[in-house]
Amino acid sequence: MNMSLFFLLLLFSTQVMGQENPMFADHESIRNPLQALPQQLQLNTQKVKLGHTLFHDPRLSKDNSLSCASCHNLEQGGMDLAATSTGIDNQVGSINAPTVLNSGFNFKQFWDGRAANLFEQAAGPIQSPKEMGSNWTQVITKLNQDAVMVEAFQTLYKDGLTAANIQDAIAEFERALITPSPFDDHLRGDDKALTNRQKQGLRLFLAYGCSSCHQGVNLGGNMFQNMGLYGNYFADRGKKISKADLGRYNVTGRLRDRHRFKVPGLRNVALTPPYFHDGSVKSLDEAIRIMVHYQLGREIIKPEIDLIIDFFKALTGQLDGAIQ
Amino acid sequence: MKTSRTFWMVLFVLALGGLMSLLAFYEGLDRTHHERFLTHLQRLEQLDTLLDRDISLARQGQLAHFDPFHQHLSEMSKEIQSLLIEHTQNRQWAKPQLLALEKRQHQKERLVQYFASDLAVLRNSQAYLPTAIRRLAKELSLKPDTWDKKDLNEFLTTLHTLLRAVTVSSRPGVTNQDHEIPLMVQRLRQFKPDHTSESHLSHLLSHVERVIQFKIRVESIMTQALAIQLVDSITELRHHEALRFNRELKRMNEFRRLLFVMSLILMLFGLITWVKLRQKAQLLTDKQQQLSSSLQKLKQETSERRLVMDKLRILDWAMEQSPVSVIITDRKGTIQYVNTRCCQSSGYTREILTGQSPGILKSGDMEASEYAHLWSTITSGKEWFGEFHNRRQDGSLYWEAASISPILDKKGKTTHFVAVKEDITQKKEIEKEREQERKALKQAKEAAEAANRAKSSFLAMMSHEIRTPMNAILGMTELLQEHPTKEERKAYLAVQKRAGTALLTLIDDILELLRLDAGIEKSNAAPFDLPMLCHAVASLLDRAAIEKGLTIQVKIADQLPTIWLGDERRIRQVLINLIGNAIKFTNQGLIRIETAFCDKNSEQICIFVTDTGIGIPPEHVERIFGLFYQVDSSDTREYGGSGLGLTITHKLTTLMGGTITCKSIVGKGTTFTLRLPLIPSSPKEAKKTAKKQVKHKIETPAMQVLLAEDSPDNAMLVRSYLKKTRIHLTVVEDGAQALEKVRSNHFDIILMDMQMPVMDGYEATRKIRQESQQQIILALTAHAMEGDREKCLAAGCSGYLTKPIKKQTLIKALLEHAPVS
After folding, report:
1. Which of A260, B143, B400, B593 is 20 to 30 A off residue A88, Cα-Cα?
2. pLDDT in tens, B808-817
């Protein structure tokens, strides 16, 4: 009864919110390709807490050697600074680990967008033989021996400790991983939030058309794009094309999706080298240069790159202390 | 009534069952679910619309970023998932439609993704074109000499046209100039400017190409995306849902109607039940009140009862221990309880008695009327007291004093009877004894009183009777001493003799009476001649009769035996008395003696003495046999007599075992009837006895007799009696002398007067007895009273003679005690 009532209320509130959302509510904001992080998130703090524990729990891996945090170090911009991550038994991954920070704003997860959301994503690495190498039966058996864990699940979920609930808790936690930055303050009208150079970098960012794709709240993460719109990136790279390089093609099997990747968000980009899905570029200015060349069909001079890098630094945000 | 109740019950159960099954199987009208379904659909529709709007906006450059696409799309996915998860359970029809919807949504999403990507590229190139042209123009302006003026002009014109065409064509919906653009691009590529300019141009043209290329793609994709309208599916779903909901509504209405009917039935039932229950409740309340009050009462009664029970227990114990019998019967008299004592006294066990009637105890020797009285008493509510003579089980009888009372209830109705009985058999016996004792005592007392009275009257009579002749004797003696003439002396002596005779008669009578009273006399039966006796008595008194001018007749019945066995002397005495009396009270007429059997079969002899005298008044008839009784004192003067005659007669008759009765009519005469139980005997026996008597008379042996007598008259009398016998008599005057004489002489018999001076007879007898046991001592005493004889014998006398003594008596006594020679 209580549950259904709550559900109704929730439904009603959603409806009301929907109704309160007029067609052109934030006219200016929709004109601006770059959007600030929301100041408030509606999350279940208990689930966030449980997800935090699970995120750092090595029992989710086959040999209890790795946790989610092993590759997605929250201190390190939500990734591991490696081109490709190392899974159990020192297995080398096939793709660069994207940051987990602000990942809740991505329209899909993984480089190839094979996960519709964080919930689906969470199951991926755990069961991937190259990554954590475990399976749900194993994970649940291990966690079931932890009374505290079991109790935590039972208080939060009707059906207690299940794979779905583990995914849900981790996803809820990951949604909480947002990093408000000086740029967000700037977007909200704080003129002093950015330095002049950063402001110049922002202008360049917009002028060069970076924001065509790196747009929205996450400055990316809301579309797929072909790698190498102006020039053959993979041919120029010289490295053999791997399966991972096929991108979204691996998901859809459509020729159009060959070398198509989810545009990564640029928040905390200064913290997350190496860059690109293959982790082939270590420096940010090189990454910017490559991006301008292959994706925008232009060339950019060094001083402008530096200005953009300065702007990028303004995208470096802080996790909420409580999350840490 | 019963069938209708059953009918109602069945109806009730059916209604209840139907209601319950309806409630169990019907999920109810799922309005919330329905509304939620519709809300989801509405939201989906809204989101689709929003998405289409945002696509259009984005295309027109009104939307700078594509986050809203994904917000809408993810929300749509969620809505569809919700619909699939939540609403396909009871809407199976909806599932394929929803899945189709989801598929279309995915299609649209994919198209939107392509749209976004391509639009981004298009926008980028569009945005870059002015910059690229500006930079190219700047480059060209820096090197004006390298270009032919005409070429430059054409180049710039073409470029300008191209840019305008691109700008125009890049606008959404514009397609007419598209085909010219590649031509212009181609023409521009034919120009060969310097390296830098060529690079700039190349960039510009590639972007132009992208604009043209992506514009087409964007337009195409957008058209495709917008062509995917979820609204159709949603409308269809809505329509189906509306149908479903209506069906459900209809069903619910039917259900409601049913529910209403069943509820009505139930309510009716409830109402009926309520009314009934209320009535019952009222009843119950009343009953409860009654009960509580009864309970209160009961409690009180219980405590009272406990007290009563204790009391009862004690009483029961007391009853069981009671020395009296207790029987409790019911109203009909059936025994319900008997105590131990009752069982003991009756000999019956409790088991036998219980349930029986108390009549079981009846001995049968009590009057039925007594029981009837008992019943009438106790049934009328009163207590009955009385005695029962009952019979035990072993047949023995016993007496019981009983008190029977009814136990009444509050209404005064008899519920039980209680009999409390005491065994009084012993008491009764004791009482009987006491009664006898009392009677004896009374008799003794009466006797003593009578004796006392007799003594008084006797003394008074004696005084008179003795004084009268004494007076005559002494008077005559006085006259004789005054020297009377011979005739006078003769007359005087005659008077004296008559008086003396009368006196002696009196004394004889008294003595006779005393003897009879003392029971000394015994009837000695001997054969005798009855007719002769009658005649002898008649002749004896004939002279006296003749003197009064009377005749005596003797009549003996025929066939009457002559010789009878009886006490002739006493019969004679009786006859003399009777005839003497008859003569005395008869002034004229005759006196008849009649002898006959009293009746044919009897052996009793009746002797009738009849006179024609004055008679006896009836009231005196019974009393004439009393002592000193005469009809009146005047008669005594007229007729004289001691008044002892009939008393003696009566006593003598009784002594002989006979009776004497008297019938008399005043003025006509009196008949005395003497009944004697005589036994007829043979004449021989009579003669033998007579001879024996004669022989005794003659043969008086010679013997020495000592007489101790202080009275010389008496001594002279005895001496004269023995004058003609061979008995030698020695006389002493007192006991002491007698003792002295006995010591010195031998006497065969000592006649001892008891009242003597110096030493009385008793003393003397004891002294003599001390010296000789063989010495015969006969007491000779005037103490003729009862007990004197014993006194004399106790003193040691061998025999007992009373004074005045007759000659024959004396001789007979002497002969009896004469030593055998």
Report:
1. A260
2. 788 888 887 7
A200 pLDDT band, cuts 50/70/90, is: very high
Amino acid at B712: P
User: Vertex B644, ends B638 and B645: CA angle to 5°?
Assistant: 80
Which helix (H) or strand (E) is B662 found in, with range?
strand B659-665
Tell me how far the alpha carbon of residue B448 is from its chain's centroid: 56
Chain A residues within an 8 Å CB radius of B39: 11, 15
The secondary element (H helix, E strand) that includes residue A151 is helix A147-156
List the single best residue of B117, B126, B139, B224 to mutate versus A (max A Cβ within 10 A). Answer: B117
Kindly state the DSSP code that residue B46 receives in the 8-state scheme: H
The residue whose two tokens read 């022989």 is B695
Set of chain A residues whose Cβ sits within 8 Å of the Cβ of B116:
222-223
- Chains A and B form CB pairs within 8 A to the count of 91
pLDDT beneath 50: ranges in chain B: 633-637, 686, 689-698
Q: What is the β-pairing status of strands B604-610 and B669-677?
A: antiparallel
* pLDDT (0 to 100) of residue B283: 85
Is 0.90 exceeded by the ipTM?
no
Whether residues B120 and A225 touch (CB distance < 8 A) is answered with yes
Report pLDDT for A288. Answer: 94
pLDDT in tens, A180-191: 999 999 999 889
What is the reported pTM? 0.51
Q: Could you give the 3-state DSSP secondary structure of residue B749?
A: strand
Q: Between B568-585 and B530-547, two packed helices, what is the crossing angle to 10 degrees?
A: 30
**Chain B contact present for A103, CB below 8 A:** no
Name the residue with tokens 């490696």. Answer: A82
Alpha helices in A64-135 (DSSP H): 68-71, 118-127
Instruction: Give me the pLDDT at residue A16, please.
Output: 36
For chain A, positions 215-244, list CB contacts with chain B under 8 A. 215-217, 222-226, 229-230
**What pLDDT sits at residue B705?**
87
Q: Which of A20, A131, A174, A299 is catalytic?
A: A131
- End-to-end Cα separation, chain B, in angstroms: 136
Rounded average pLDDT over A224-252: 91
Contacts with B, A 195-214, CB within 8 Å: 207, 209, 212-213
Write out the two tokens for B602. 């009897």
Q: How far apart are CA B112 and CA B134, in angstroms?
A: 33
Strand order in the sheet with B563-566: B526-529, B563-566, B679-680
Q: Which two tokens stand for residue B564?
A: 């009878």
Query: Cβ B128–A209 below 8 Å, yes or no?
Result: yes
**Residue A131 annotated in active site:** yes
Say yes or no for a CB contact (<8 Å) between A30 and B120.
Answer: no
Residue environment code for B716-744, b if the CB has 16+ CB neighbours within 10 A, otherwise e: ebbeebbeebebebebbbbbbbbbebbee
Given CB atoms, is B106 within the 8 Å cutoff of chain A?
Answer: no
What's the rounded Cα separation, in Å, for the pair B653 and B432?
A: 33
